Structure formats: structure tokens, C-alpha cells
Amino acid sequence: MAKKRNTGDYFAIKVLRKKEMLLKHQVDHVKMEKDILASVNNPFVVKLFYSFESESNLYLVMEYLNGGDLYSLLRNFGSLEESWARFYTAELIHALDYLHSKSMWICSCVLS
Q1: Are the beta carbons of 21 and 30 closer than 8 angstroms?
Q2: 72/76 Cα distance (integer angstroms)
Q3: In what order do the strands lie in the sheet with 57-63?
Q4: Over pLDDT 70: what percentage of the chain?
Q5: What residues form DSSP beta bridges with 48?
Q6: 61: which residues sit within 8 A by CB, 6+ positions away?
Q7: What is the largest CA-CA distance in the chain?
Q8: Does position 108 have pLDDT exceeding 90, yes or no?
Q9: Domains plus CATH for the chain?
Q10: pLDDT at 104
Q11: How far apart (Å, rounded) are the C-alpha atoms in residues 50 and 47?
Q12: Alpha carbon of 47 to those of 29, 56, 65, 67, 69: distances in Å?
């Protein structure tokens, strides 16, 4: 998490190590993730504001979502109550429907 000094806005920063991306053959997946996130505008898909790189890392500066992503939620709670599961399932369906309407194919890395 980072705070922009002049506005006080919070952002989530995803740091990806270039060396690991190469070793795991994930370069194309990461490029696809960045391109998709940069081109979509939907309340159920996290917003990508900036991306930049250093010699060893790629940085994706995204919308900060209090509470984190669904994976983190499941890791922390183990399982969800039925009402929560319905809510998150509906959000996922809306996001996938939006991406499908844009004729975008997504890889598993976008959902993780």
C-alpha cells in the first residue's frame, strides 16, 4: 500500500520480480494482465492507474481495496457464509460478463 503525498489517496502496489517472471514463464501472462487491467473500466474489476519498472521489478499501481482480494479473504476465513458466497459470486459473474462483452480473453493470473 502507498499513499500519494499531494492528494492523500491510497493505492495498492503489486511488485513483480522480473527474474521470477522469466523463471516461471509468466511474462506473457503478466503483460496480458497489465493490458487488460489498463483497458477496462468496471466497478467489479480493479483499476490499474500506473505501471512502471526498475531494472529488477515491474510495478502495477492499482486501486486500493480495503480488505484485499477474494483469495486473501478465503485464505483468512477458510470458507464463506452462503450470503457472502452469493455476493462474491455475483460480483465475479458481473466482472466476467463485462470482460466477455469486451471480447477479452482472460488468463487465470487476472483472477488470482
Answers
A1: yes
A2: 6
A3: 2-3, 10-17, 57-63, 48-53
A4: 91
A5: 62
A6: 2, 11, 12, 13, 48, 49, 50, 51, 52
A7: 45
A8: no
A9: 2-111 (3.30.200.20)
A10: 52
A11: 9
A12: 18, 24, 10, 16, 13
The DSSP 8-state label assigned to residue 66 in this structure reads: T
pLDDT band at 60 (very low <50, low <70, confident <90, very high): very high
Rounded mean pLDDT of the chain? 88
pLDDT tier, 62 (very low <50, low <70, confident <90, very high otherwise): very high
Cell triple for 29? 501472462
Instruction: List, for residues 79-89, the tens digit of each pLDDT value.
Output: 899 999 999 99
Q: What grid cell was written down for 55?
A: 531494472
